[in-house]
Amino acid sequence: MSTMAKALTIAGSDSGGGAGIQADLKTFQERGVFGTSVITAVTAQNTLGVHGVYPQSLESIEAQLHAVLSDIGADALKTGMLFSAEIIELVSKLCKEYNVTNIVVDPVMIAKGGSELLQQEAVEALTTQLLPLATVITPNLPEAEKILGAGSIKTLGDMKEAVRELKSVGPQSVVLKGGHLEDEIATDLFFDGERMIPFETPRINTKHTHGTGCTFAACIAAELAKGNSLVESVTVAKQFITAAIEHSLMLGTGIGPTNHAAHRLKK
Ligand SMILES: Nc1ncnc2c1ncn2[C@@H]1O[C@H](COP(=O)(O)OP(=O)(O)O)[C@@H](O)[C@H]1O
Ligand SMILES: Cc1ncc(COP(=O)(O)O)c(N)n1
């Protein structure tokens, strides 16, 4: 008999297997933590995009959360697609009730093909209720612009300003992801109120980046669950996602998924 660190994902299901719950559970498994899940919405999705969104009832989400947290517990929790203000309110309430530490909030808003994974009117609930509970938030550039409600973030200079503003929204720390920068370097900027640390890798020339954000945030949660520091966790996550993008998969005819097992190919 042995024990294992536990990580919980609260997110949407991606039938195509590249993002959402499926990406999170695969990442947890690859990082050696026991994964549990609360499904907020089912999406009919493939490499060509999101073909349907079917949110779960609040009753279903609450029952799933109680089932996991009242028995198994979680050393870290990660949120992804939350879809509505009501779901955000419920998840925030239960995170407080169960006193979960190590909360990674990936403020998922729009899928790569443009479909809405968070209703426009839910951005305020996300900003005021869930982000302040987070150990770390991991917005991409368009999500950061929506949270801050102003300006466009186009350069590393803009990112340095934005990451400070995001911190003042209330999370303990921020990783602002620069995947959407038009730059040779894919820079993610960490800020915890004191340290500002850039995590840089050369940009990989591929369109197959479905699930990068989910995988990155899930990896941070897995490393936190094992007791690693936040900076160590982000360092591992950046290496993990880079390998996953380098070896991304040409499945389907659209935007293929990242390869969650790629780190095993590395010598
Ligand atoms: N083409 C790329 N080459 C290397 N790293 C990338 C590339 N695209 C995204 N990343 C990295 O993948 C992670 C997810 O970033 P991003 O694509 O911005 O998030 P999202 O999937 O939420 O839009 C970040 O660590 C980012 O730097
Ligand atoms: C259910 C679900 N959740 C999240 C994403 C975002 O994916 P990405 O990590 O590519 O931004 C998605 N496409 N589907």
Automatic annotation (TrEMBL):
<dbReference type="Pfam" id="PF08543">
    <property type="entry name" value="Phos_pyr_kin"/>
</dbReference>
<keyword id="KW-0784">Thiamine biosynthesis</keyword>
<comment type="pathway">
    <text>Cofactor biosynthesis; thiamine diphosphate biosynthesis; 4-amino-2-methyl-5-diphosphomethylpyrimidine from 5-amino-1-(5-phospho-D-ribosyl)imidazole: step 2/3.</text>
</comment>
<comment type="similarity">
    <text>Belongs to the ThiD family.</text>
</comment>
<dbReference type="InterPro" id="IPR013749">
    <property type="entry name" value="PM/HMP-P_kinase-1"/>
</dbReference>
<dbReference type="InterPro" id="IPR029056">
    <property type="entry name" value="Ribokinase-like"/>
</dbReference>
<dbReference type="GO" id="GO:0008972">
    <property type="term" value="F:phosphomethylpyrimidine kinase activity"/>
</dbReference>
<keyword id="KW-0418">Kinase</keyword>
<keyword id="KW-0808">Transferase</keyword>
<comment type="pathway">
    <text>Cofactor biosynthesis; thiamine diphosphate biosynthesis; 4-amino-2-methyl-5-diphosphomethylpyrimidine from 5-amino-1-(5-phospho-D-ribosyl)imidazole: step 3/3.</text>
</comment>
<protein>
    <recommendedName>
        <fullName>Hydroxymethylpyrimidine/phosphomethylpyrimidine kinase</fullName>
        <ecNumber>2.7.1.49</ecNumber>
        <ecNumber>2.7.4.7</ecNumber>
    </recommendedName>
</protein>
<feature type="domain" description="Pyridoxamine kinase/Phosphomethylpyrimidine kinase">
    <location>
        <begin position="14"/>
        <end position="259"/>
    </location>
</feature>
<dbReference type="GO" id="GO:0008902">
    <property type="term" value="F:hydroxymethylpyrimidine kinase activity"/>
</dbReference>
<dbReference type="InterPro" id="IPR004399">
    <property type="entry name" value="HMP/HMP-P_kinase_dom"/>
</dbReference>
